[in-house]
Design goal:
It is built from 5 helices and no strands. The chain has one domain (about 1-120). About 15% of the residues are buried. It has about 120 residues and is mainly α. The radius of gyration is 16 Å and the shape is globular. The protein has helices at about 1-20, 25-45, 55-75, 80-90, 95-120.
């Protein structure tokens, strides 16, 4: 799982480095955000049969906790040094464009699953 996370982080960070110049921080935000979207979707699917209505407070608390965890991840785990090491590791990868599109598809699907979890009534 860590290898998959690292690869997704590398692809997103390399994309943002080409476009914005700050790849490590933006890569952390996008990948950690997609993980939290999936986690929120799972929570929503689990509690949907119980007809629990989430209050505004739940979403505020979840958002604050998510932002704190994302900041801790970006501060301690996903650094520019890690990005440079991953760049060396994946420098000569085959099918890099296809893999980049698959990472992009993963991010879109995680967002779609989140919206789907709010729409579907079980």
């Amino acid at each position: 799982m860590k290898l998959l996370y690292d690869y997704c982080f590398y692809k997103v960070a390399s994309f943002y480095e080409r476009t914005e110049g700050d790849g490590a921080f933006s890569g952390t935000l996008v990948i950690a955000g997609s993980l939290f979207w999936l986690l929120l979707a799972v929570i929503n699917f689990i509690f949907r049969p119980y007809q629990l209505e989430y209050s505004r407070t739940f979403y505020i608390i979840y958002s604050v906790i998510s932002v704190i965890i994302i900041c801790l991840i970006s501060w301690k785990i996903d650094t520019e040094e890690k990005f440079l090491n991953l760049r060396k590791q994946y420098k000569d990868e085959k099918n890099a464009t296809l893999k980049g599109w698959l990472v992009f598809l993963y991010i879109l699907i995680s967002l779609f699953v989140l919206f789907l979890s709010f729409i579907i009534n079980v």
